[in-house]
Design brief:
single chain, about 350 residues, mainly alpha, 14 helices, about 75% helix
């Protein structure tokens, strides 16, 4: 069912993504950053997510420029600049951090799809690694105040990128290269409607992630459990889609997650079950984008990241309450399931 080499690429990029988020959130969680947290986070989020599609598309049309080494070098420069407690240099370091983040995300998306045999599992393995790295990055401040130790992670990242180069699909560099065909959307549905659904479903996932009631999440190990189940849900979601079909998985997980998300405020097991289920929809939106943007995986992945950051930004203007959160989780989860039902074709 799976191309073994492609799974190896997915695992390599799992650790690349782990390194990216470890470095990013270790820097964002530094005490110096806490004095300007809103500006720093907004600057990072915008640069890390918004330009991804365009940067990835540039790589697709200029394949001799290796964005992997450039992106990892940018992370290294960011560590060096952010270690200097000067406001201007710190913010300049955040700029390098965001752009490096965007370049490496696009490389991972392109590499895991280019030799996938129309399977999404390797891509969700790659994406899932970020949640694990994010968890460790948030805890970095408990181990050290010196972010220069992160240069070790940068060095490991360079090694991982080098190893992935040896496994990359050689056909990718040919002028007539075409990505594997992800034939999962209903052909009678207009392309623009499908692209709108890709954006909306990803935006919903980004928004819901911050409205889930998690009063239980207080201790460090509980925070780790939350992100581990989130990442594991993304990974397993890709396997489930390849095994049982995108439409079934999309509708089932979006609806079944509702009671767990609402009722898990004081119960970790119930809550992380809902988080696991809802996270399984990640690969579906990406695969929908690839289905219609057949010439550019970069733009398909970039569309999902714009949706994700839009959902995240919505939380800055949304005032949370228990009742309102419950109403929103129910309504937008059902809406998400309906969109999956309309746009995804039935698969045997």
């Amino acid at each position: 069912m799976y191309n073994r080499k492609n799974i190896k690429i997915g695992v390599l990029y799992f650790f690349v993504h782990f390194v990216i988020e470890l470095i990013s959130f270790a820097i964002l969680a530094t005490k110096f950053a806490a004095t300007q947290v809103i500006f720093t986070v907004l600057l990072f989020d915008f640069l890390a997510f918004a330009p991804q599609g365009l940067l990835g598309r540039f790589y697709e049309t200029h394949k001799k420029i290796h964005i992997g080494y450039i992106g990892m070098a940018f992370l290294g420069i960011s560590v060096l600049l952010c270690g200097i407690h000067d406001p201007f240099l710190f913010n300049l370091g955040i700029v390098f951090l965001g752009i490096g983040n965007a370049l490496l995300h696009e490389l991972g998306a392109i590499d895991t799809v280019s030799d996938s045999g129309s399977r999404i599992f390797a891509s969700t393995i790659f994406v899932g690694g970020g949640s694990f790295g994010l968890c460790l990055g948030k805890m970095y401040k408990y181990f050290s105040d010196n972010i220069y130790w992160l240069l070790i992670a940068v060095a490991i990242g360079f090694v991982l990128i080098c190893l992935s180069d040896r496994l990359r699909n050689a056909d990718f560099y040919k002028p007539d290269f075409q990505y594997p065909d992800f034939d999962i959307v209903n052909p009678s549905v207009p392309v623009m409607f499908i692209l709108a659904c890709v954006f909306i479903t990803t935006m919903i996932r980004g928004f819901v992630a911050y409205t889930i009631p998690t009063a239980w999440c207080d201790e460090i190990w509980e925070i780790c459990a939350l992100y581990i189940f989130m990442g594991s849900g993304k990974v397993f979601g890709g396997y489930a889609c390849d095994r049982w079909g995108y439409r079934k998985v999309g509708i089932f997980t979006a609806l079944c997650a509702i009671p767990f998300l609402i009722l898990g405020n004081d119960n970790m097991v119930v809550s992380v079950t809902g988080i696991f289920l809802f996270s399984m929809t990640m690969g579906i939106s990406f695969a929908m984008g690839i289905s219609v943007l057949k010439e550019s995986v970069a733009l398909a992945f970039g569309l999902t990241t714009i949706g994700l950051i839009s959902g995240t930004f919505m939380n800055y203007i949304y005032t949370q309450s228990v009742i309102m959160n419950a109403i929103l989780i129910i309504s937008i989860s059902v809406f998400c399931a309906v969109l999956f039902g309309i746009t995804l074709k039935k698969q045997k």
